[in-house]
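We emphasize that the prediction below concerns an isolated chain of 218 residues; any contacts that depend on oligomerization or on bound cofactors are therefore not represented. The input was used exactly as deposited, without trimming of termini.
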Amino acid sequence: MQNALEFSGKVSLRQRRLPAEQVVWLVIGLAIYRSKSVKEIVDSLDLAFATEDGRCITSSATTQARQRIGAEPLQWLFEHSSRHWVKEDEQSYLFQGLHLLAMDGTTLRLADSAENREHFGAQSYANDTVSSYPQAKGVTLMMVATQLVRDARFGSYKTSEINFAHELLPSIPDDSLTVVDRGYLSAELLMHLVREGRNRVVKTVAQRYPERSTKRLT
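Result of the prediction step, given as a token string:
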């Protein structure tokens, strides 16, 4: 945790009621206990340092604290934790000497704010209405046996999942079998793997529909 903060230059230089390290734990808690409010998580995990007069930390203070540290420490923590856990477990779950992975997309609903709508956008419908909430689109690369997310890319809802998939290709290890949705079956994606010269195998559910697969590749 401290390494993540030091790497991003977000270490608290003065004593705060909710210092940077506690804020990182708060964000992790928000991801795990999604049904709880920020205050409930701060209280149940005892994240805020006590004051002599017993004052409670305010919601605005937790918001400011999260804005203060930004996304960089969480990104660093995810990337390094993922690499460590993958390395620790991957040899135990090989299939015929191959790493088993899955790649697929997802959509996340975001807090409704002008900034999020401008940056991420939202789904549009046939009657020219848009989604009630801004949305982020992304693709994850996951270890099949452990369901551990090895890598991920998220961004604007308007961005195609295939673009995120291309960004994840360097994270696919040699000697692996990667299962992807049939929507990712494209000559460009497969040719990129060949050009990289790595021993990767990409299998898609499109193989269940050979007439579609042939059409897409020709």
